[in-house]
Amino acid sequence: MLTIKQAAVRHLDEPQLLPDIFPSLQKEGIRFRRGQVTMIAGQPNSGKSLLALFYGIKANIPTLYISADTDAYTTSIRTAAVITGHLTSTIEESFKNGGLDFYTKELSSLRHIEFSFDPSPTLDDIQLMIQAYGEKYGQYPELIIIDNLMNVAALHDNEWTGMRDIMKACHHIARETDSAIFILHHTSEAEGEPTRPPSRRAIQGKVSQLPEMILTVAMEPEYSEFRIACVKNRFAKHSAMGDKWVSLKVDAARMTLKDEDLMQQALRFNGLVVNG
């Protein structure tokens, strides 16, 4: 047991907030913390993996990425796109036509992320991966990304009950390892428009109780917008309906996200924006 004072100062020597790489999200109180679970949910092809992979690479912190939903070949192409800004189609052609050495050299520079590509890991498998990471590096990862919830093999015959058991286990793992956990998940396609972030009630399996924060995402291709709604947040404002969102610029073909705040700052720095 701890007094509340002991609890408050226990981890002051270790930063609990993960890096803020998008000022627009930080401004709205959307910040990732160690020891907590964040769910990133959306319809198929909404950009869940894009956001998780991009953040995992750009945050530059010790990360374990459990890519159950996407194979190693596809992930390597997407990762190379994040690093270089090149088109994924160009990278894949280079893989086949003599340009592999350039991209493998770029990929070898990515030293802070370990990947697992088990297509159907159990909770025991995930815990063993985390333990193996700890033994290899002498510390647990600061960020664990599980892509995605439906690919984790549950012990329960009922799919929804199995998902809830997995979420409880993730909550426990986050506390025990002091790692931030991103867990990706699907929302119902029956509700809402694919270009608008879904509401919290659209999350499949009734698993929204345990995550400290839930983000729902969607893409608007016509305007190159990546929309992020915070439908649950224990630290700041949120909108359960998903009707208030932050927009980032997205180039899905290059696996790239850009913050409008940063773009405006760059324009002002170069004298291209006049206030008022």
Report what the structure shows.
- The chain is globular and about 55 Å long.
- By secondary structure, it is α/β, with parallel strands linked by helices.
- Helix content is 35%, strand content 20%.
- A nine-stranded mixed sheet has the order 3-2-4-5-1-6-7-8-9, with helices on both faces.
- The chain starts with a helix and ends in a 7-residue tail after the last helix.
Q: What would you say about this model in short?
A:
With 276 residues, this protein is of the alpha/beta class. The protein has helices spanning 4-9, 23-27, 48-58, 72-84, 88-96, 100-108, 123-137, 159-177, 260-269, and strands at residues 37-42, 63-67, 113-116, 143-147, 180-186, 213-220, 225-233, 245-251, 256-259. Helix content is 35%, strand content 20%.
Calculate the terminal CA-CA distance, rounded to whole Å.
55 Å
Main sheet attributes: strand count, strand direction, barrel closure: 9 strands, mixed
Pairing-aware structural class of the strands and helices? alpha/beta
- List the secondary-structure elements in sequence, H or E: HHEHEHHHEHEHEEEEEH
Proportion of residues in helical segments: 25-40%
Mean pLDDT equals: 90
Number of strands: 9
Contiguous uncertain segments of 5+ residues = none
Radius of gyration: 19 Å
Shape: globular
Order of strands, main sheet, comes to: 3-2-4-5-1-6-7-8-9
Total of helices? 9
Which strand-content bin applies to the residues? 15-25%
